[in-house]
Automatic annotation (TrEMBL):
UniProt name for this protein: Nuclease SbcCD subunit C
Residue span(s) of domain Rad50/SbcC-type AAA: 5-196
Basic and acidic residues: bias regions: 423-434
Oligomeric form and interacting partners: Heterodimer of SbcC and SbcD.
Pfam family, one: SbcC_Walker_B
Coiled coil feature spans: 268-346, 571-648, 691-738
Keyword Coiled coil assigned: yes
Lineage: superkingdom: Bacteria
Region spans: Disordered: 227-248, 423-451, 545-567
Matching Gene3D superfamilies: P-loop containing nucleotide triphosphate hydrolases
Length: 1022
């Protein structure tokens, strides 16, 4: 991690805005932060920590960040540009602080705020304000920075920024705390996760083995229960003997015992033995079942033979009886057959006879219809005796002429309406042309209207900047109003203080006069006070005489020492009050002068009026913005309307042209149809009249023609019907129509006679065929079948088959179950062996990584990796420590805690080897100077190792805020030499110190100085 630029404002003692380019400052690799104690050097480190974490080093509240010297309303903030392996970022934070209210008097609490940007590569230089915003929410900024920086605040203040009081925290840290710092810095949590993952895999592997073993046991239990089925008692074989049990109890007991011992080979052997035993029992049961089935088949054959003989005997008896009955009914059936034959021959002639009667009736109707048609055709000049060819010609001529006139009838009827419609359409076309002209006039006016809109819009072009200026002026006016009000309040306070000051000055003068009077009275009364102490024979303290002939006497207004002391104290009190009021007045006058200058000498009323004017200007600017938007929208709408009108005008002109063409075409067609109607009309009143006359003539000719044709066809049909009747009577061997009528019978009687004759004939044939069948003809009628005896024998055989089939089925089912369970058991055994093979390496590796069996170091994988990294850090630190301590001290890694206690996280303890005494020392026993340079070597060693690790956290900046004053000149020279070597690796080290010698050694520095007002300022020297 490297720090590039720090900017702060109204932070700590720094009231103004200050910016520090750390890249320029650290070009040489070493820079100094110098200044008097308490001037604010540590505030710069606090600002860096606050920018990244939102809190100060050591968890101190950030409330003290807001500068008490900053002007009211100036927002405190810290901005830091830094880079890590994740990229370059800019973070801005403002702490929680109180600010003046924007409206009214008093203050309000402003909550903390934060913003974060990602900067493009190469944007670390000052002035690069661009970047991609990531977040502007305090919580989200904190979360993002935790991901970007990786180190938490405690780790950051142990490795990058080392503030006062925490410089030696990594040296004195507990091993557990060092573990967290090293793990975050070196990214070794992957080994922790690997160790956890191996433990999870080992648990899963052991679970898989246990599951496979449980599956073997469960399958053995199922197999034992299946193999034990039918093991008690005996079974009847096909010959009536018994087969003993196959020793299944011993097999199942041994099988369960082998499963309990997880003896896979023995389990497989016993399972196969159980399968073999059940296969033998199945074979014996199936043999007995087959013998029973053969006996059942023989009994079935005997029963079928008996039933067949009984059936044939019964059939022969029935056939003999039926033959006797048929012989008795033969004469009556012959008479019915004769009647049926005559009726059937007459029925054949009936249709021909009926056809001849229908032909005669048709001939009569046709002759009458011809006479009526001839009468109707007379008025149209058609003679009754016209031949068929003439009638056809007359009909065709009328039809042809009528076909030509029919379309003209419709045309003639539409002519008046078409003429009227044509006139209406011409009027509408004229109106449309007027609308087109109106549209054209509107389109012609559009350019001028648009120019007027553009001119009006031009007056509002700068409304945005005018509004922003108005807002700025309003905010400035509000600030001036607040300052004017504050100035007015300050002037009132000045007047009050001046009044109090005058009174205090008078009181001070009175106190001085009172003290002077008291002292004069004290001086005047000193003689009386001395005289009171004179004694005869004792020397006078003033003149030394032993006689006192005329001692002085004290007056009534004599002042004592107590009176003098009280008067002096009263004078001091009034003088102090006067000085306090004078200082307060001076401060108020300075504040009043500053406020008068800030508000440009405006009164509250004038400032209020300016605020009102500014508000009106803002409102006017806002209204101008709205009007600008309205005019812009009007211009857009105007252009859209112009485009619409232009398109409508083009469409209207096209429609007018097409309408004119359609009107001309319709007028031409109307004239043509009028000419055709006149030609078709001829001498008649109208085409319709002529068509009606032709239609009536055509119908009369067609009716007469159709009647003549029908009369001719009816005569020919009658003649043919008489010929057909004669031929039918001859074929039916009947004399005439009367004989036909006598022979006819009703259909139901015919059907009954036919049924009787056909049934008798069929029965005769059936009985004769039955008596001639081979199985019937050989019988005599004296046979005895014995069906009941054979049926009893068959039922006994069937019962034996059912019993033996059930036993064979059960044996097959049990054998199949045992075989399936044996196969499942084999698969379960295979799975158990495979799970054991897979689990072995995983469990061993997990045990090694987790400090389990086989790990002689008793150290986990994650701890082992950190031990090696920590040893590298200690080795790198010792390289510098040897030079800084003249070879006296060296750091050693130990497995115990400092102080001899065993560490729960073994291996991250530290002790110091003193080569003068060759005895180890606890780091807490080092002196202040020794602790400083040992801690410095440890921090630099940590940075060296991190830089050498690919993918680790880059510790490119180190800032040290204590300890240099505790070094003697020789040690300081050695330490500075070591720090100077850091520039070779591209690192930057910042040193915070007020030691004078440091200024001579480090030219690049930030000098912090106090100002007369009590605030601080800084100067960067590169």
């Amino acid at each position: 991690m490297r720090l590039h630029r720090l900017t702060l404002q109204a932070i700590g003692p720094f009231a103004e805005r200050h910016e520090v380019d750390l890249d320029e400052l650290s070009v040489s690799g070493l820079f100094l932060l110098d200044g008097p104690t308490g001037s604010g050097k540590s505030t710069l480190i606090d600002a860096v920590v606050f920018a990244l974490y939102g809190t100060l080093a050591g968890g101190v509240s950030e409330d003290r960040l807001h500068s008490d010297h900053a002007a009211p309303g100036v927002e405190p903030f810290v901005e830091l540009v830094f880079s890590t392996g994740a990229g370059t970022f800019r973070v801005w934070r403002s702490p929680k602080h109180r600010r003046p209210k924007r409206r009214g008097d008093g203050e309000t609490l402003q909550n903390a705020r934060a913003k974060l940007w990602r900067l493009p590569a190469g944007s670390e230089r000052p002035g690069d304000e661009h970047g991609v915003p990531i977040s502007a929410h305090v919580q989200e900024v904190g979360d993002e920075l935790a991901r970007i920086v990786v180190l938490d605040r405690g780790q950051f203040t142990q490795t990058v920024v080392l503030p006062q009081g925490q410089f030696a925290s990594f040296l004195h840290a507990r091993p557990e705390d060092r573990r967290g710092v090293l793990q975050e810095i070196f990214g070794t949590e992957i080994y922790e996760r690997l160790q956890q993952r191996l433990a999870e895999l080992a648990r899963a592997a052991r679970g898989e083995v246990d599951g496979a073993a449980a599956q073997v046991t469960a399958t053995v239990d199922e197999l034992a229960r299946a193999a034990a089925g039918g093991e008690d008692g005996t079974e009847e074989d096909g010959t009536g003997g018994d087969t003993a049990s196959d020793g299944a109890p011993a097999i199942t007991e041994n099988l369960r015992a082998a499963a309990a011992e997880t003896d896979v080979a023995r389990v497989r052997e016993l399972a196969e033995a159980a399968c073999a035993a059940w296969e033998e029992r199945q074979e014996a049961a199936e043999s007995a079942c087959a013998a029973a089935e053969r006996e059942e088949q023989a009994a079935r054959a005997a029963l079928d033979a008996a039933r067949d003989l009984a059936a044939r005997s019964a059939r022969r008896a029935a056939l003999v009886e039926a033959d006797r009955a048929l012989r008795e009914a033969a004469d009556e059936v012959d008479r019915a057959a004769g009647r049926l034959d005559r009726a059937r021959r007459a029925a054949v002639v009936v249709p021909v006879l009926q056809a001849r009667e229908r032909a005669a009736e048709r001939r009569t109707r046709a002759a009458a219809a011809r006479e009526q048609a001839a009468v109707a055709a007379g008025p149209y000049g058609i003679e009754a005796d016209e031949d068929l060819e003439s009638l056809q010609r007359l009909r065709d001529e009328a039809s042809t002429t009528l076909g030509r006139l029919e379309p003209l009838v419709t045309v003639e009827e539409s002519l008046p309406e078409r003429a009227a419609a044509l006139e209406r359409d011409r009027a509408e076309a004229a109106h449309a042309q007027e609308r087109t002209a109106s549209l054209a006039a509107q389109v012609d006016r559009r350019p001028a209207e648009r120019a007027e809109l553009e001119r009006r819009l031009e007056d509002y072009r700068d409304v945005g900047s005018r509004r922003e200026r108005a807002r700025v002026e309003r905010d400035l006016a509000l600030d001036r109003l607040g300052e004017a009000r504050e100035a007015e309040r300050t002037r009132a306070q000045i007047a009050t203080v001046e009044t109090e000051l005058a009174a205090a000055a008078q009181a001070a003068r009175d106190a001085v006069d009172a003290e002077h009077r008291t002292r004069r009275r004290w001086v005047q009364g000193m003689a009386g006070a001395l005289a009171e102490s004179l004694e005869p024979g004792r020397p006078c303290a003033v003149c030394g005489a032993t006689e006192h002939p005329s001692p002085a006497r004290s007056g009534e207004d004599h002042a004592t020492d107590e009176d003098v002391t009280a008067a002096a104290e009263a004078r001091e009190r009034t003088a102090g009050a006067l000085a306090e009021l004078q200082a307060r007045l001076t401060g108020l006058q300075e504040r009043s002068a500053g406020l008068e200058e800030a508000c440009d000498g405006l009164t509250v009323a004038e400032a209020t009026e300016r605020v009102a004017e500014a508000e009106r200007a803002v409102e006017a600017a806002a209204a101008a913005v709205v009007r600008h938007a309205e005019l812009a929208q009007e211009l857009t709408d105007h252009d859209a309307e112009t485009a619409r009108l232009t398109e409508q005008l083009a469409q209207a002109r096209t429609a007018d042209a097409m309408c004119a063409e359609r009107l001309d075409e319709r007028a031409r067609r109307l004239r043509e149809d009028e000419r055709r109607a006149a030609e078709g009309r001829g001498p008649h009143a109208s085409v319709a009249d002529r068509a009606a006359r032709l239609r009536s003539r055509m119908r009369a000719a067609r009716s007469l023609l159709e009647a003549a044709l029908e009369d001719q066809e009816a005569a020919e049909a009658l003649q043919q019907a008489e010929v057909d009747l004669a031929e039918a009577l001859d074929r039916a061997r009947l004399a005439d129509a009367a004989a036909v009528r006598d022979a006819l019978l009703p259909q139901d009687e015919v059907d009954a006679l036919a049924s009787t004759v056909d049934h008798h004939r069929a029965e005769v044939a059936r009985v004769a065929a039955g008596l001639a069948e081979p199985g019937i003809v050989e019988l005599t009628g004296a046979e005895e079948p014995a069906v009941e005896h054979r049926q009893a024998e068959y039922h006994d055989a069937r019962a034996r088959v059912t019993r033996f089939a059930g036993r064979a089925s059960e044996a097959r089912l049990r054998c199949r179950q045992v075989r399936e369970l044996t196969d499942r058991l084999g698969a379960a055994c295979d799975a158990y062996m495979a799970a054991g093979d897979r689990a072995g390496p995983v469990v061993r590796i997990a045990a090694l990584a987790g400090a389990g069996d086989g790990n002689t170091l008793e150290t986990t994988l994650a701890t082992y990796v950190l031990l090696r990294r920590f040893e590298d850090v200690v080795a790198a630190a010792n390289g510098r420590l040897a030079a800084m301590s003249d070879g006296r001290y060296a750091l050693e890694r130990i497995d115990e805690r400092e102080g001899g206690q065993r560490s729960r996280k073994a291996g991250l303890g530290l002790r110091v080897r003193d080569h003068v005494t060759e005895r180890p020392r606890d780091p807490h026993t080092l002196s202040g100077g020794e602790t400083f340079y040992v801690s410095l070597c440890l921090a630099l060693g940590l940075a060296d190792v991190v830089r050498s690790e690919a993918g680790g956290i880059e510790l490119g900046t180190l800032i040290i805020d204590e300890g240099f004053g505790s070094l003697d000149p020789q040690t300081l020279d050695t330490v500075m030499t070591e720090l100077g070597r850091l520039r070779e690796g591209g690192r930057a080290v910042g040193v915070v110190s007020h030691v004078t010698e440091m200024k001579d050694r480090i030219p690049e520095r930030i000098s912090v100085r106090r100002t007369p007002s009590g605030s601080s300022t800084l100067t960067v020297r590169c």
